Amino acid sequence: MAVVGKRILVTGGAGFIGSHSVACLQDAGHEVLVLDDLSTGHRTNLPDDRVLTVGDIRDAALLDALLPGVDGILHLAALVSVPRSIEAPRESLSRNVDGTLSVLEGARRHGVDRVVIASSAAVYGAATPPIAEHLPIAPLSPYGLEKATCEAYARLYGELHGLETVCLRYFNVYGPRQDPASPYSGVLSILADRARSGRPFTIHGNGLQTRDFVHAADVAEANLKALVTPGIAGLVANIGTGRQTSVAAMAHLVRKLLPSAPAPEHGPVRSGDIPDSWAATEAARACLGWQAQIPLEAGLEDLLMRSRAA
Ligand code: NAD
Ligand code: UD1
After folding, report:
1. Within-domain flag for 182
2. Are residues 43 and 192 part of one domain?
3. DSSP-assigned letters across all residues of 144-183
4. pLDDT (0 to 100) of residue 222
């Protein structure tokens, strides 16, 4: 694929990471189409909602209408919550695995050059960090198992049909437009929302569990590189910063930045929670020429100063 002027379909483009990715692809000179059922995404996340088709990735007829002339697909649409996947495993399976198969099938039918798939650090389960791509797949939740299955389908579609696929295992993505509205939302969106509204934040367990928090604008750049870098078909790469931060440390940092924020409370450990997670980042650097640029403190401070719609 040449580097500019391509037509890219972004599934889940009205979601959190999707909205950053759409802006990044457009800025790089690509034509973007978005397919999103708005189950968790919002029309207002998009800079220009004329690119949006509201519908379901599992609708083959809809994909047949959208895919002619498309060069690449950035497949982000999914049910993204680990606890929600435990409570509603069939819905999660359907959206995540059936949905991905539907996108791969559409790509095969229409001769799309490359599909970039949003996978997750959740595929590794309780691996000891720093987590490298060669470590065994051992998910602790239906969500992690589904993402691992999507990766396996992607590899198979490369072997069976010559479809170029790239799977990016994002670590914990944060930034503007991550919806804090539900208990299933990403932790930093909830933490920032609670701090701004003066309500207490609940830490699940002792808060010593760690995550590798990577900014959505950095992830969008990785998505762009995965779509346009030549010679990387079949790549599976971590997308993280390589830095480990505990949930308790984040709560502490928020109170330092916003002293009016109430002290956190503690609740029970969440089922399916992985204990520690931070990425080995060499593969993304070597194969995509990508590494995270936005320091966590700066990203968090920016998040605290904004409203959700910003
Ligand atoms: P999000 O919920 O904001 O985005 C998902 C989007 O997909 C939403 O706009 C939703 O409306 C749409 N969608 C869901 N099911 C659909 C369907 N069947 N048809 C059409 N659209 C559908 O979540 P996000 O955080 O932006 O996640 C994007 C992708 O990144 C997901 O695949 C997620 O699993 C993956 N990921 C996210 C993180 C993170 O920390 N946020 C980390 C690892 C992987
Ligand atoms: C997140 C993503 C998932 C992604 C994975 C990759 C979301 C909603 N989930 O899962 O899509 O694949 O990273 O690593 O973006 N916590 C609290 N209090 C809260 C909320 C959360 O203490 O109110 C804790 C959780 O128990 C967990 C940590 O914060 O230990 C992170 O939780 P969460 O943001 O839900 O992310 P993951 O489960 O890591």
Report:
1. no
2. no
3. HHHHHHHHHHHHHHHHHH--EEEEEEE-EEE-TT---SST
4. 99
3-state secondary structure of 99: helix
Q: What is the CATH number of the domain that holds 92?
A: 3.40.50.720
Q: Are residues 223 and 267 both part of a single domain?
A: no
On whether both 76 and 117 belong to a single domain, the answer is: yes
DSSP element (H, E) containing 236? strand 236-239
266 lines ligand 2 (CB under 6 A): no
Catalytic site includes residue 170: no
183 pLDDT tier (thresholds 50, 70, 90):
confident
Q: In this structure, are 74 and 155 located in the same domain?
A: yes
Ligand nearest to the CA of 175: 1
Other C-beta atoms lying within 10 Å of the C-beta of residue 117: 25
What are 73-110's pLDDT values in tens digits? 999 999 999 999 999 999 999 999 999 999 999 999 99
Total number of domains in the chain: 2
Shared domain for 238 and 250, answered yes or no, is: no
CB of 82 closer than 6 A to ligand 2? Answer: yes
Full residue range of the structural domain in which residue 257 is found: 187-210+244-276+301-309
For residue 212, the ligand 2 atom closest to its alpha carbon is: 14
CA 12 to centroid of ligand 1, rounded, Å: 6
The answer to the question of residue 1 being in a domain is no
Ligand 2 binding pocket mutation candidate from 76, 82, 168 (most atoms within 8 A of CB) = 82
Distance 187 CA to ligand 2 centre (A): 5
Do 66 and 111 meet the contact criterion of CB atoms below 8 Å apart? no
Are 287 and 263 part of one and the same domain?
no
Q: Looking at the chain, how many residues does it have?
A: 310
Ligand lying nearest the CA atom of residue 214? 1
